[in-house]
């Protein structure tokens, strides 16, 4: 593999990575040579996932903390500091979905989605960027957008607002941190076969809509996102900043 994509000697923190796309990203970066730190709130699930990677010979560890709580995030980074572990690559993957028409949506449900899907990226990136800047080496921050970073779908308003915010927060990170050799970019997954989308996948009409709405005429697979994650984590993307790369089968490119 070209050294441009080699992540050996680097440490990557992937939030919300005990399962789903987060675990795929973590495994992909580990395959490219990175030491990976998996994060989740579910300690037992996290332990299983860390062991899966360790059993494959990858360097992996788990870190339980709530990405939406600044105190917990700071304590987690201080623990890494104490262990002499520097985060070179951060993937802000943690996120939830909550589907309900806005007129029926409780403010608490709106706030929870915004807190976990948008504000957490600010909180965790702030802690990481402080250390990337202080260390002088810079680093990579990868946020996770969505088709809803560009276009809205009914009944997922807080998710859509958060993912639109992720696109612009990514650009704000570039505005402030590119000078410190931090490259902040985003991945915009299309409709991917994940647990979060299980209800949609099982819905015959929705499944047909996904297949008829994108030129690839199919759902994406989690491992089809790994290449973009490795690319944005590697030296191959050192002059790319503030971008969102859509891995969507061409959905957003065509009418
Ligand atoms: C939904 C889905 C989407 C996808 C993805 C599309 O309810 O429409 O959950 O949000 O997960 O974000 O890009």
UniProtKB/TrEMBL annotation:
Name of the top EC class for this enzyme: oxidoreductase
Top-level taxon of origin: Bacteria
MF annotations from Gene Ontology: gluconate 5-dehydrogenase activity
Family matches, as PROSITE patterns: ADH_SHORT
Keyword Cell membrane: no
Keywords: Oxidoreductase
InterPro entries, per the entry: NAD(P)-bd_dom_sf, Sc_DH/Rdtase_CS, SDR_fam
Classification via Pfam families: adh_short_C2 (PF13561)
EC number annotated for this UniProt entry: 1.1.1.69
Family under the similarity heading: Belongs to the short-chain dehydrogenases/reductases (SDR) family.
Protein name per Swiss-Prot or TrEMBL: Gluconate 5-dehydrogenase
Origin organism lineage: Bacteria, Pseudomonadati, Pseudomonadota, Gammaproteobacteria, Enterobacterales
Gene for this chain: gno_2
């Amino acid at each position: 593999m070209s050294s441009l994509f080699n992540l050996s000697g680097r440490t990557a923190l992937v939030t919300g990575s005990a399962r789903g796309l987060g675990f795929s990203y973590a495994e992909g970066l580990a395959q490219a040579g990175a030491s990976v730190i998996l994060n989740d709130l579910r300690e037992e699930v996290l332990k299983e996932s860390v062991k899966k990677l360790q059993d494959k010979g990858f360097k992996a560890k788990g870190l339980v903390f709530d990405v939406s709580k600044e105190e917990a995030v700071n304590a987690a980074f201080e623990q890494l500091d104490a262990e002499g572990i520097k985060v070179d690559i951060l993937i802000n993957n943690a996120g939830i979905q909550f589907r309900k028409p806005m007129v029926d949506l409780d403010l608490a449900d709106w706030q929870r989605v915004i807190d976990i899907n948008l504000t957490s990226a600010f909180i965790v990136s702030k802690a990481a960027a402080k250390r990337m800047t202080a260390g002088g080496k810079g680093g990579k921050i990868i946020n996770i957008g969505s088709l809803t970073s560009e276009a809205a779908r009914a009944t997922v308003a807080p998710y859509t607002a958060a993912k639109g915010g992720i696109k612009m927060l990514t650009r704000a990170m570039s505005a402030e941190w590119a000078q410190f050799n931090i490259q902040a970019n985003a991945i915009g997954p299309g409709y991917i076969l994940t647990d979060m989308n299980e209800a949609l996948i099982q819905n015959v009409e929705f499944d047909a809509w996904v297949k008829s709405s994108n030129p690839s005429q199919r759902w994406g697979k989690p491992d089809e996102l790994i290449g973009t994650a490795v690319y944005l984590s590697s030296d191959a993307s050192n002059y790319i900043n503030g971008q969102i790369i859509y891995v969507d089968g061409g959905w957003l490119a065509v009418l």
